Please model this.
Amino acid sequence: MSGVADSLLAALIVAGLYMIATSRLGACVRASAVQGVILGALPIALEWSKGLGPLPAHAALLALGALVIKAILIPRLLLRSIREAGVRREVEPMTSLHVSIVGAALLVGLAFWLASRMALPFPPPSPLLVPAALSNVLLGFLLVVARRQAITQVVGYLVLENGVFVFGLGLASQQPIAVELSVLLDLLVGVFVMGIAINHISETFDHMDTTELTSLRE
Amino acid sequence: MISASWFVFVIPATAALAAWRIRPVRLQLGVLIGTAVVHLLTTASLWRSRLPDTSGMIGIDALGLLVLSLVALLFLAASVYSVSYLLDGTHDDAAAPERFVPCMLAFLASMSLVTVSRNLALLWAGVEATTLASAPLIYFYRRPGSLEAAWKYLLICSVGIALALLGTFFLGVAATTGAAPAPGLGIDQMITAARSLDPRWLRAAFVLVLVGYGTKMGLAPLHTWLPDAHSQAPSPVSALLSGALLNCALLGLLRFYAICVAAGDAAFAQKLFLVLGFASLLVAAGLLIGQRDYKRLLAYSSVENMGVIAIGLGFAGTATYGALLHVVNHSIIKAALFLLAGNVLRAYGTTTAGDVRGANRRLPLSAALMMLGAFAIGGSPPFGPFTSEVSIFLSAMRGSAPWLAVLFALLLGVAFVAIAGTLFPMLQGGDPSATGGGGFPRERLLTLAPPAALAAVAVGLGIYVPADLDTLLRSASGVLGG
Model:
């Protein structure tokens, strides 16, 4: 069954790359929802890659939490933000999309290289776990710094968090579930607060281009 | 078992929910003050409990109690100050004053959660929650500038703290050797198992956590959000951000540092502390010179003092005690200064230092206290920061790199001159009638008593450190190898 987990992790990297490559804001948010679905399936796939059997409550709860928060609630919040803020529907990259696609490919390469250097002290549940986690952390970072619009920066933060979440899944079984759910809850509230801030930004400045948030400086 | 450590975050969290449902602002303020008093009393009761209480996910130890006590004290001061702040009707551009109290209480709950977490992932959740609770407070005045500050704060700190979570998981990897059952992410289990941690993953974890919590703590070059947020927030919020919140981020960092110490790899962490500490001191000294906005001046002074604390930790040994004492001194005096800056701001209606003249005539008591505060934060005797900075300096002189100690003292001197150069002309001389504002000619008890009380504590700590506090500091620095 480890083939399923490998495929899911590969799909996670592809979804991250798609978010860099797409020029549509809505598509970017939907791709983050796809990542959420993958993250919902991943705890189960990783559990079953050790052998089929009844699903432990821990994995089931984690899968449900990730699915509800990352695949449903957060994308809905963001899509509503796009609708209400009435923003332009194109992502606005700082550099051309081609450049960021090349950058993204390099970052994924870097993630695989780093993962090969940092040998885990225990056999990972899937060889793709660490590369996929680091890829998404780096791709999320790229989205935060290389996009003008506030909403794409939030999506970037989400992708980064997704990467961290995947890494956490590698050691999921050792943690109290309450802790992991509170981390997920934090993320939900975080995106909620950021969504409100985005609405205020678009009301105040008539757009949500963060390059013009530069009145405070030395 | 439910101990008093649970109450310190459950009570404010409950009160925050209650305040959310209450509409009249006066009633909300009653809830705010009541909760602040109960929170302070609960914290005081923890001083009598046996430390450390590490029975579960929630518990208290010397380090946590130190930070929690500062949070409780400053929160009460800021709450009392807020009463006049909210009722005097200076908030034409604050669209929703009724949001203030619930967010303040949620902020208190999240900071308290950080101090009592015995699990590193739970601690992370608490630190992230502090960001979310305080961002609306920074945007209290619905101005473009405060919106910009709140957005930068949210995004930079959230991204930074996400890296701290990755670092937390890295530590989880370091603890999973495959042979023994994994200890989870409990702080106490980690310290017990520290010797068997994988050293490479431990180092990687510390670097990520230093970047993550260092961002939130305001260490240069990750401090960029800090001056904006501190200068745009209402003054009682600025006082809490600087005096209480930065310490919570520092606490997150210290938890990992304690694990490095227990693992016998403290030297690596200390080098990094020194690098970031001196970077902060340099950047802050540079930007303090010629700083025209007095709230930004105080914010950069916080960057400077976080640098001092990091340097104290980096020098290690007896400097660790000095660093922790400096945490206490900086919090109290900086909170007092931000509250006093709020008085000046309300009297003159500007944060530009050049437009404020003759405050000693318009606001005699505030100006006198602010003068005292400027001397204290600059590290002059007989105030608290002098004691702690000298103890860090002396410990460094005895260490392997005395020239670093000289550089340390030199940069502190530059910062002091820069702070004095901006604040003193505001406080004395000049004709106050020549400057603008003037909505609040008289000083009020409620906006004067909190900073006065904090200043009194700062003076007291400069003269002597009470035995109880000394014991607490010793036991806390013991965990950090000092």
